[in-house]
Amino acid sequence: MSNPAYPIEIAFPDIAAHEASDSGIAYVHTFDSGEPGPHVMINALTHGNEVCGAIVVDALLRAKLRPRRGRLTLSFANVAAYGRFDASKPDAARFVDQDFNRVWTAKTLDDTSRGSSELERARAMRPVIDTVDLLLDLHSMHEKSAPLIVAGPLAKGIELAAKLGTPATVICDEGHPEGRRMRDYEGFGDPSSPKNALLIECGQHWEASAVDVARDVTARFLALSGVVDASDLAQDWFAPLPDEMRVVRVTEPVVAKSMDFRFAGDYTGLEVFDKAGSVIGWSDGAPVTTPYDDCMLVMPSVRQLRPGVTVVRLGRIEQRIATPR
Questions:
Q1: 248-319 to CATH, choices 2.40.30, 2.40.50, 1.10.8, 2.30.30
Q2: Segment 247-275 mean pLDDT
């Protein structure tokens, strides 16, 4: 698989003005309407080189958006990684010490014998996240692929994605062997809890269209939650909905055993292989094949290749849903 150097089409915002906050947690801003309603969080920079969410959160803070009902938190997560971004090595700013989106279990966060830049930041943010009812986590992808929703493994995630109505592809999965994501943390990943979360992969990290997707899903999520009215948001952030959504269930990850992994083609994501047994790559010289007919590749990439990293997930289309009108 080739590794093209994708052009950086967007300007990275200077977020230093947002460091101080009333929450007492740097770069995490919570506003309380004083009226009943959910606590909604829009989070950016879970990974330091995924800038589209930062552009959106920066814009909302500068616009002084405030909730009409409930509470609204606007946050930048891995600020340390973002501050290390170098256009000559753009993939290196994903994290400082470890992936911020693989530490989200109470056991991991409580284990003070373990330390890293990301764990310290997660522990600092945790008191706010523990009170959030609805989380939208804005991400982007290594490769240039159509945007998608990562809804987690539960029916409630699929239901929330269907109400949101976009992007068109909804991925249902158990996460990564390397560790738990924020969107699966505690109540978000508990079927008995009313808490819910979506992770949106808005497009390739530095393409301008990823910002358009991030604006659209953020505006729709905020309006859907009820913390603000649609009229409170910039109307040009809303984009047309797709005609339908497809729900894809991830059945298994492909995890690199070593640095000796390569794909059979220049895959970027959502490719579908008609026949079981199709060779999609090689791991330590052994072929990696599709386990069933009509198998979809979900977010294939070797840009962060190292032993134990998921290089692609394999999925099956479960259902198609007409979008809300």
A1: 2.40.50
A2: 94
Which pLDDT value is given to residue 45?
98
| pLDDT for residue 325 | 63
- Please, are residues 250 and 172 in contact by the beta-carbon 8 Å criterion? yes
Contact 243, 229 (CB under 8 A): no
The Cα–Cα gap between 31 and 130 comes to 16
Q: What is the mean pLDDT of residues 200-218?
A: 97
DSSP 222: H
Q: What would the pLDDT profile of 166-200 be if each residue is shown by its tens digit?
A: 999 999 998 777 789 999 999 999 999 999 999 99
CATH superfamily of 16-244: Zn peptidases (3.40.630.10)
Candidates 126, 131, 231, 223; CA nearest to 182 is 126
Whether the per-residue pLDDT at 2 is higher than 70: the answer is no
Are residues 182 and 73 in contact, defined by beta-carbon separation less than 8 angstroms?
no
List CB contacts of 305: < 8 A, sequence separation 6 or more.
256, 259, 261, 311
Contacting residues for 312 by C-beta, under 8 A, at least 6 apart: 253, 254, 263, 267, 280, 281, 297, 298, 299, 300, 301
Residue showing tokens 């990275």? 12
pTM for the model: 0.92
**Backbone φ and ψ of 124, nearest 5°:** -70, -40
Angle, CA 92 vertex, CA 78 and CA 84 arms, to 5°: 50
Q: Domain residue spans in the chain?
A: 16-244, 248-319
pLDDT tens digit string along 96-121? 999 999 999 999 999 999 999 999 99
The four Cα atoms 270, 136, 67, 232 give a dihedral, to 10 degrees, of: -10
CA 107 to chain centroid, in Å, comes to 22
